[in-house]
Amino acid sequence: MAARKILPWLGAAIILALLPPFLLAIGQPFYLDLARRILILAIAAVSLNLILGYGGLVSFGHAAYLGIGAYAVGILGFYGVGNGWLHILAAVVASALVAAAIGAVSIRTSGIYFIMITLAFTQMLYYLGISVAEFGGDDGMRLKTRSLFPLVDLNDPVAFYYVALALVILSIFVTHRIVHSRFGMVLRAAKSNESRSRAIGFSPYPYRLAAFVISGAMCGLSGALYANHTNYITPNLMSWQQSGDLMFMVILGGMATASGPVLGAFALLLVEDLLSGWTQHWQVILGPLLILSVIFFRRGLAGIFYKADA
Amino acid sequence: MLEVRALTKNFGALRATDGVTLEIAEGETHAIIGPNGAGKTTLIGQLAGDIRPDAGTIRFAGEDVTALPTPRRARRGLARSFQITSIYRDFTTLQNVALAVQARSGHSFRFWRRAHADDSLISPSQKILEEVGLEKRMHVVAANLSHGEQRQLEVAMALATRPRLLLLDEPMAGMGTEESQRMIAFLATLKRKQTIILVEHDMDAVFRLADRISVLVYGRVIATDVPEKIKLNEEVRKAYLGEES
Questions:
Q1: What does pTM read for this prediction?
Q2: Is A308 on the interface with B (CB under 8 A)?
Q3: pLDDT digits (tens, 9 = 90+) for B164-176
Q4: For residues B102 and B99, what is the distance between their CA atoms, to the nearest angstrom?
Q5: Do A186 and B108 touch (CB under 8 A)?
Q6: How far is Cα A217 from Cα A207, in angstroms, rounded to an integer?
Q7: Which CATH fold would you assign to the domain B1-77+164-176+192-245?
Q8: Per-domain residue ranges for chain B?
Q9: ipTM given for this complex
Q10: Which terminus has fewer CB within 10 Å in chain B: N or C?
Q11: Least CB-CB distance to B114: which of A180, A186, A189?
Q12: B59-64 CB contacts, 8 Å cutoff, 24+ apart
């Protein structure tokens, strides 16, 4: 039973680990870049899945933390701080704080109001990013330096790829532990039947807020990596389209499944890459494809491989 | 244990609860009966905390809980079952009960250890499932239980919080005769050990289980007494029992 569950994960990890030597051997380093981007955004999708999939909190503003994480790296670099640990720390802490503030207000609402409030907060941050000319405003800003770590050089595309891969695996594992813990059970229960939860003595609010903060912090990490990936930061990272992309990865991949967000990230971004190489109007094709996939894969791509574990 | 004073609730022009005064003693099984629309579920809702009364007070275990929200009342030992089954349909039977056990075991800001491998949650849950007779259905997803089993689970979850006062809102609703009999027999085993407020339509169950009965008509308590006296009460027969037969 346990082995059957672990084997697909092991297989996927091995394939992803062997990807860089393979791509370099066939002379396609561009795809290494794409794979790295997918892995980094997969971390953001995994973090969103914690609140969207397991918590039932439809946050339509998750790109905010991607942006905050990225700007944390960019702004520290701007002031001459290159220490990678500091970059990561700043990205995670800043994202957690902003998530705490946004969550404290928005989690008091539910349904469509929650969606709209999270969107509104993120739009605020987006326009803030546009208006601060010092950090590039609308045009964005080039990183002065990538985050510096001992032993690992993020300028080495292969090393950076493995860092991203390790962090995806870590984020899946951490999320897995959280959702099966007591905390996770309360979070999922409140999604399943809130009035029952209240009747047995759980106030969902503090648990949802904590999940929202954890999720924001994890997404901030993804943002810090993303800044290093593109070497360039723009407010677009906080646009509602980006939030929508993250939501789509989770829904397409399979909400409340461990592998769903990663599958969704690969599927969405690979198809996007494929179509955009083929025609300029790729979104016209992507849209209907997404709609069809939602109709036919009710439980997401992860549902094809195995039943969502309870 | 529970003292309700002059509780009043209006829904627009409708007075759903009209100056209800009740006293429930420790260890008592107190039934609330009344025709449809008498305001029984509204009353339970106010006792549990889901509905805010317009006037009146509710004292529980010596403290005024009128302003406390549902979860805090539940943590003080006021548990309810719902008339319309309210369980975690996508969780297993065991997980449902384990959550209720977890609710009374301190805060749940524990992020790492697996809840389903936590014996301090699982073994009390298994015990409760054995008591209500659901132990063989432990690992079944709750949505796949039969209606009767879901009703049993509903009661099991309320019990698993180890309440000081158990509010049962029509626990036999929609059950077949055989299932009802089993539920009545089970509730009978709780008598004396557990203080219970029982809202029920099944008169057989009420007269077998209740120590005292309050009759609610149009939001008002028209009589509170032991079952034998309620049966003979002229006003009650006119307002309620007469309609049934």
A1: 0.93
A2: no
A3: 999 999 999 888 8
A4: 5
A5: yes
A6: 15
A7: Rossmann fold (3.40.50)
A8: 1-77+164-176+192-245, 89-162
A9: 0.91
A10: C
A11: A180
A12: B59/B2, B59/B3, B59/B4, B59/B5, B60/B1, B60/B2, B60/B3, B60/B165, B61/B1, B61/B2, B61/B164
